[in-house]
Description:
The protein is of the alpha/beta class and 354 residues long. The chain is built from 15 helices and 8 strands. The chain has an 8-stranded mixed sheet, with helices on both faces.
Amino acid sequence: MSRRTRGPRARRRRRVLVWGAVVVLLVGAGLGGVAVWQNTYALREERVTVRHDGRLLDGVLARPANGAGPFGLVVFVHGDGPVDATHETFYRPVWEAFAKAGYASLSLSKPGVGASEGNWLDQSMDDRADETLAAIAWARTRPGIDGRRIGLWGASQAGWVLPKVAARDRAVRFVIAVSPAVDWQQQGRYNLLAELRKNGASQDETQTALRRRETTLDLLRQGATFEHYRNAVGRNDGMTAERWRFIARNYRSNAAEDLRAMRGTPTLLVLAGHDINVDVADTESAYRRVLPPDSLTVRHYPDATHSLVGNAVENSEPRLTLTAVFAPRRLYATGFLTEQHRFVRQFTDRQGTD
Length: 354
């Protein structure tokens, strides 16, 4: 039920600490200037606060380095987990790509992350859509932002949020969906089997895992408590009471109906060739089946992982660390940042930014 995605996030947080240590060592060796230069972006970042549902959400508004605007805006919608506004700096190369096309970027830390109030595990996908709509409404009041050119960018779990927002706010100019799934339960089964294959599980181990999954689904359908789940499963699998309640709120999520409701909104669907979280063939089929061909652009990155990092880079800790320090823009699959720039550029209103 998508809980396995916490492993990569935990590893990513450890990598940030590793990167920090490496940077310190490099400074001591006289190479810190190179790392600082490579991690400097053509952006003007401003800390902002958005109020929603009685809570304050902390975030970053990243404008192009030059010009007064009005700029178009890309509002970021995070994937699963406790993601901060910059996604531990991972978003900055994407923000820069948009800035070069004349677009600002807005990203809020999830509730309970950083200075944002609340708890993201208390949210349904509808709650997340409401939060995103509040961010858009706030942005439309900001000087220097062109409210006619506001689009959405989201990854992974955002696939259940983006279509809701675009369906409810028909003024949203475009949607960029990176590695999204359509059906929560289908995605969970695919991810489970992919992880088992990756880890070399035997046929008996696979069948056991599938039976455990069916038990979990039955418990969710019955509205079982976390204690009931723990007693039924009989093992410590890392599930927490908060996570159980989050899954119970969201395990029925399916984006198909919302995709139909947002028909006509220009959409860029980004899919990775080494995605073990999402069945990209199923996602592409669903998007093509529902969205008109003239509004849908699909881009495949065969050598990329779920996070659009190059597969060879993500699966080598030394290479990942060195790339993050010395060439962070190259973390992403070849051509990804260029395509992000190209896609939003077509919506540039020349009288607004050029």
